[in-house]
Write a structure and sequence with these properties.
The complex is a heterodimer of chains A (802) and B (287).
Chain A (H helix, E strand, L loop, with lengths): L14 H5 L14 E7 L5 E7 L9 E5 L1 H11 L29 E2 L5 E7 L2 H9 L2 E6 L6 H6 L12 E8 L3 H7 L2 E9 L11 E7 L4 E6 L4 H12 L6 E4 L16 H13 L3 E4 L2 H7 L6 E9 L5 E13 L7 H9 L8 E10 L13 H19 L3 H8 L8 E6 L5 E4 L4 H12 L4 H10 L3 E13 L5 E7 L5 E5 L8 H13 L6 E5 L16 H28 L6 E4 L2 E4 L10 E3 H7 L9 H6 L21 E7 L5 E13 L6 E11 L6 H20 L30 E5 L22 H13 L5 E2 L3 H12 L1
Parallel strand pairs in A: 1-12, 8-29, 10-11, 14-15, 20-21, 27-28
Antiparallel strand pairs in A: 1-5, 2-4, 2-6, 3-5, 7-15, 8-13, 9-10, 9-12, 13-14, 16-17, 18-26, 19-20, 19-25, 22-23, 23-24, 26-27
Chain B lengths: L6 E3 L4 H11 L3 E4 L5 H6 L7 E4 L9 E3 L3 E5 L4 H6 L1 H6 L1 H7 L5 H4 L4 H7 L5 H8 L3 E5 L4 E5 H4 E3 L2 E2 L6 E8 L5 E9 L6 E11 L5 E9 L6 E4 L13 H9 L12 H24 L1
Parallel strand pairs in B: 1-3, 2-3
Antiparallel strand pairs in B: 4-5, 5-10, 6-7, 6-10, 8-9, 11-12, 12-13, 13-14
Helix pairs in contact in B: 10-11
The structure holds flavin-adenine dinucleotide (FAD).
Protein name (chain B): Aerobic carbon monoxide dehydrogenase (Quinone), medium chain
EC number (chain B): 1.2.5.3
Pfam family, one (chain B): CO_deh_flav_C
């Protein structure tokens, strides 16, 4: 084998296309399509009266207007399922009051932005003109906004959901409160994180084409799961699944919001396309994304912790309230993740966690990169800092004392993780990671820096935060690998790509396994015409799941190639190797006649039907052995072609970890908060491509900084989102994102053939925790709520001065 | 986010432009750099039926550095003014203010006169116009007039420019010799509208004593606030007396709380940034 690509900084093969503007995103497609626009609720909570379309009907270019009534009649006449509420994707026994929206509102709206009327017209301009002339009678109802109001239950989001409570869930390893009570020291903390959102640059979008002759539907959608959208669309439209194909074009970011499916528009657009017999497209605009996609992070936590003189945890009891918005189609994944991943690298003593998932009249909540972990990490790390402060112990020392030791791996927390499987860490060396971080940031030298800064009238602080991330959740992912007769290797996996570099990463793996040059490998993702069974891209799972699947498949294909080549070369398969796409007898030079055969030729030989269309087929004839008239051209159990499909399905998640340290400066006069240094130590097992990995970390850190210092959803009490634009929802610009200093540790996962763990979400997880820790250190008073703005810091200073 | 239907006009002279504005009255809007107007139209918060694009009007493209003032045509982009060395030599405060206006990409399209007419309460160039005793030249199909900075800003997003009127230029006075200026601001992110911004102009006499000190604040009220702080100057070389500064500012600013900052914090910033701006301006005046 030539130099291994695995572990190399292979430049991303996607980039030349994407950075030269040759990407194909959803809105680049379907210029001939009709356009959809929606009349959305301006109220957070209201009953819907009459819908008057008379002003709209004479807008030139209007094609159709649909309301919920049309879904009802469609269901009655055509047997579709369009009038039913959208599915509750992930039910759970504790989710006793799950409510999901209808594709178009049925009598009541529960958040600003909920779709009420669908308009289809010749283009988006006309569709919006017509939508603007449709008058909906709303009878406003009192809105429930914020955890406090939801919790007090005086006003209800859904009349049949008492107390606004969708679920209460408890997990415990014993009587944690008793353990706290019995501990020599204890603390109580209230900790809060506000809402933010995935906010991909490209919003959602759907294009559907109905082929009346074929009675089939081709859907393009900007999703993180094309296979599941396919199932959902077929079910909703009552079409046989084989009449629906879903293709994911280039996707301009997902960060979680596009794993939710089907979005109302994802079923309405195909439905309208079928009804109208025309291609229909909808491209979400930014305001729509703010008010009708999904948010995340809003949680309020109350913690009781008991510990010994050394700061070791004896008992940890956490109650928290999760604001999941108007509906809960994605179930309890986020709060379940918080309640389990909160533990990070620590042994909590006796642990109990209870959460309540609450309805509010706001946009729904679905996982956003990190998915409940940033909140959990914030809680646990604030607890660590509080213990350190109370005991007067260095913050790294308290953490070290509570770490799970490497020799305790695999470590079972005896809790149930998000996938319904054991929360059991497979590997990791937390003390080693912490040591690397201390070195990287210069933890021990900071006191001197602080003194020097103080002498100059400057305030600086250092903080850190540690996390563990369950990645690569199942149930499975598959890969298909085929060698073409020209030696090209075509790889397909069903999950999607949103710009992460999956094509490059998967090609590296396959190229290594098959012994072919990198540029001979072509990877397709997220196209149900190529691959039918897949789960999706979320939960930091692609390298683990599809990486393992394509590696296993490539190994299988390699075996077959060796068998066929061995026949042709009259050698034994064990004596063969593949170098640069040539199968040869080990140790021979590739020039010798009949001692090597290229993979393309092997592919030709694998197929007994061999018209001499091309050079490869002609070349193959020299190897073809005379047919044995007694044997069938294809032996039983064999198949033509040099290809294979394999699935990887692990018994549990694999747990990555990392630790961040931050140095901040806070301006004594203006209260500005500046990040001076941001250091990351990262352990995601074996690294496939360090450059792609660093890119993932950089992006995650940027979002972590956003969540800590800039982003929040500003809801007024009446449920209006006050900052639904990029002017007022402050994502950090490149000017606000610090240089990220990275060091890696590699503790391979024993769970998969590559030893890899997920890395996609990691960078964002400890942002709020680490930055809060650093601000607290600079200011000398506790930070219990994130994000924090200069204005809030100003008021905190005033509180703590008086 | 698509604008409602409108008719686009592209006049090639100011006469033609004001004639169009007369003809369409309230239903017409001038399109300059479009950096404020186009987003409003896309969000359907503004729905003019006629757009009069002044970008091709040759007569509005000029920047003239005169003996007493700098005259900036209505089609001149922020970035061009910002980078003009002759302008910088004559009135450093123009560049000092402009670098705080939005991001380079927006400055490449947005116009300085457009920003004055748009009258955002946080617009830096409004403060600059006030500090430099500026004037805006307005023209309609029937009339021309000049409005002094002090009378130009009527309230949030409201300037003295009436329907049918085109702002053809703004004139910024050259500060007297011995002057120094500065602009400091604090925004949530680099390039955002400021939570508070302060321009300062300090003039010193023969003995380097402060003969005049003025600040103009943005983001802390309905419009830019010009405050003469000469009386707070402690004397040659000395800093400004803080209690006096605070008192002078207090009556002139009326910050409000919004999602980015509380009124109290803005009030605090106003004083801190005023001190900083005056310090820098004074240093430059003395240099
Ligand atoms: C992200 C972002 C950040 C920004 N940050 C800042 C900032 O920090 N500080 C700041 O000052 N500005 C900021 N701006 C606004 C920017 O400076 C705009 O360029 C400016 O406000 C308007 O100038 P324009 O040429 O783009 O005007 P347009 O958008 O074309 O017009 C704005 C309004 O003024 C009217 N108008 C324009 N020119 C004339 C004229 N000659 N006669 C009569 N009416 C006229 C138009 O009809 C319209 O009503 C920001 C803009 C954006 C998009």
């Amino acid at each position: 084998m030539s130099t291994r690509l695995f572990g190399q900084r292979v430049p991303r093969s996607e980039d030349p296309r994407l950075v030269t503007g040759n990407g194909r995103y959803l809105d680049d497609l379907g210029h001939d399509a009709l356009a959809a626009a929606f009349v959305r609720s301006p109220h957070a909570h209201a009953r819907i009266g009459d819908v008057d379309v008379s002003d709209a009907v004479d807008v030139e270019g209007l094609v159709a207007v649909y309301t919920y009534e049309d879904l009802v009649s469609d269901q009655a006449e055509h047997g579709s399922r369009m009038a039913e509420a959208l599915p509750l994707l992930i039910p759970h026994p504790t989710l006793t009051h799950g409510r999901t929206p209808y594709p178009l509102a049925n009598g009541e709206v529960n958040h600003v932005g909920e779709a009420v009327v669908m308009v289809v017209a010749v283009d988006r301009y006309v569709a919006e003109d017509a939508a603007g002339r449709i008058h909906v009678d709303f009878e406003p109802l009192p809105a429930v906004v914020g955890i406090e109001r939801a919790r007090d239950g005086g006003r209800l989001v859904h009349e049949d959901v008492p107390g606004n409570v969708a679920a209460v869930m408890v997990q415990q390893t014993g009587d944690a409160d008793a353990a706290v009570d019995a501990a020599p020291h204890s603390l109580e903390l209230e900790l809060e994180i506000e809402r933010s959102a995935s906010m991909p640059m490209e919003g959602k979008g759907v294009l559907a084409r109905w082929d009346a002759d074929d009675q089939s539907l081709l859907v393009h959608t900007s999703t993180q799961t094309s296979t599941s959208v396919r199932q959902a669309v077929a079910a909703k439209l009552a079409l046989p699944v084989d009449r629906v194909e879903v293709v994911t074009p280039d996707v301009g970011g997902g960060f979680g919001v596009k794993i939710m499916h089907p979005w109302p528009e994802e079923v309405l657009v195909p439905w309208a396309a079928r009804r109208l017999g025309r291609a229909v497209k909808w491209t979400e605009d930014r305001r729509e994304h703010f008010v009708s996609s999904a948010h995340e992070r809003g949680q309020l936590h109350r913690v009781r912790v008991g510990y010994d003189d050394e700061g070791r945890l004896l008992g940890l009891s956490v109650r928290f309230w999760h604001d999941h918005g108007a509906y809960i189609p994605y179930g309890l994944i986020v709060p379940i993740i918080t309640s389990t991943q909160l533990l990070g690298p620590y042994k909590p003593g006796v642990y109990r966690v209870e959460f309540t998932s609450l309805y509010t009249n706001t946009v729904i909540v679905t996982p956003y990169r990190g998915a409940g972990r940033p909140q959990g990490c914030f809680v646990m790390e604030r607890v660590m800092d509080a213990i350190a402060a109370e005991r007067g112990i260095d913050r790294t020392v308290v953490r070290e004392r509570n770490f799970i030791r490497p020799e305790e791996m695999p470590y079972d927390h005896h809790l149930v993780f998000q996938d319904g499987r054991a929360l059991r860490y497979d590997s990791g060396d937390f003390p080693a990671s912490l040591e690397k971080l201390r070195k990287l940031v210069g933890w021990d030298d900071f006191a001197a820096f602080r003194e020097q800064a103080r002498a100059e009238g400057r305030l600086v602080g250092i903080g850190l935060a540690c996390y563990v991330e369950g990645t690569g959740v199942g149930p499975y992912e598959g890969g298909h690998v085929r060698v073409e007769s020209d030696g090209t290797v075509v790889v397909s996996t069903g999950l999607t790509s949103q710009g992460q570099g999956h094509q490059t990463m998967l090609a590296q793996i396959v190229a290594d396994e098959l012994g072919v040059p990198f540029d001979r490998v072509r990877v397709t993702t997220g196209d149900t015409r190529r691959f039918k069974y897949a789960v999706g891209t979320f939960a930091s799972r692609t390298a683990v799941m599809s990486g393992s699947a394509v590696a296993m498949t490539a190994r299988r294909v390699r075996e077959k190639a060796m068998r066929i080549a061995a026949d042709a070369l009259e050698a034994s398969p064990e004596d063969l190797e593949i170098v640069d796409g040539q199968v040869r007898v080990k140790g021979t030079s590739p020039s010798g006649a009949n001692v090597s055969i290229d993979l393309g030729t092997v592919a030709v030989l694998s197929n007994p039907l061999r018209y001499a269309f091309d050079d490869a087929a002609r070349r193959a004839t020299q190897f073809a052995s005379p047919a044995d008239p007694a044997r069938a051209p294809i032996s039983p159990g064999d198949a033509p072609g040099l290809e294979g499909t394999e699935y990887y399905s692990p018994t549990q998640s694999t747990f990555a970890n990392g630790m961040h340290a931050v140095v901040v400066e806070t301006d004594p006069d203006t209260c500005e908060i500046k990040i001076l240094r941001y250091c990351v130590v990262h352990d995601c097992g074996t690294i496939v491509n360090p450059m792609i990995l660093e890119g993932q970390i950089h992006g995650g850190v940027a979002q972590g900084v956003g969540g800590a210092l800039y982003e929040r959803m500003e809801y007024a009490d009446d449920g209006q989102l006050l900052n639904a634009s990029f002017m007022d929802f402050l994502m950090p610009y490149s000017t606000e994102v610090p240089t990220v200093e990275i060091d890696h540790l590699e503790t391979p996962s024993p769970l998969n053939p590559l030893g890899v763990k997920g890395a996609g979400e990691a960078g964002v997880i400890p942002g709020s925790a680490a930055i809060a820790s650093a601000i607290e250190d600079a200011e000398g008073f506790p930070i219990r709520r994130m994000p924090i703005s200069p204005s809030e810091l100003f008021h905190l200073r005033q509180e703590h001065q008086s | 986010m698509k604008p409602s239907p409108f008719t686009y006009h592209r006049p090639h002279s100011a006469d033609e432009a004001v004639e169009l504005l007369r003809a369409y009255g309230d239903s017409a809007k001038v399109l300059a750099g479009g950096q404020s107007l186009v987003p409003l139209m896309s969000m359907r918060l503004a729905a003019p039926e006629h757009l009069v694009d002044i970008n091709r009007v040759e007569a509005l493209q000029s920047v003239e550095v005169g003996e007493d003032e700098v005259r900036v045509g209505a089609a001149v982009r922020h970035s061009r003014l910002e980078r003009d060395e002759e302008v910088y030599g004559a009135v450093p405060l123009l560049r000092q203010g402009l670098v705080n206006v939005a991001h380079p990409a927006i400055r490449n399209r947005g116009t300085t006169v457009g920003s004055l007419v748009h009258a955002d309460p946080a617009a830096e160039m409004a403060a600059v116009l006030l500090l430099l005793d500026g004037v805006v030249e307005l023209r309609s199909a029937t009339d021309s007039r000049e409005v002094a900075a002090a009378d130009f800003f009527l309230g949030p997003m409201q300037s003295a420019t009436g329907p049918g009127e085109l702002a053809v230029a703004a004139r910024f006075g050259r500060p007297p010799p011995g002057s120094g200026s500065a602009f400091v601001e604090l925004s949530r992110r680099q390039g955002d509208y400021a939570m508070c911004g302060v321009g300062a102009l300090v003039t010193t006499g023969q003995e380097s004593e402060i003969t005049s000190a003025k600040v103009a604040l943005v983001g802390v009220g309905d419009g830019p606030a010009l405050v003469d702080v000469t009386s707070a100057a402690a004397g040659p070389g000395g800093a400004f007396r803080e209690p006096q500064l605070a008192e002078l500012l207090a009556s002139q600013i009326a910050p409000e709380s919004d999602i980015h900052a509380s009124a109290e914090y803005r009030r605090h910033l106003a004083l801190v940034l005023t001190r900083r701006a005056l310090g820098q301006a004074h240093e430059r005046a003395a240099a």
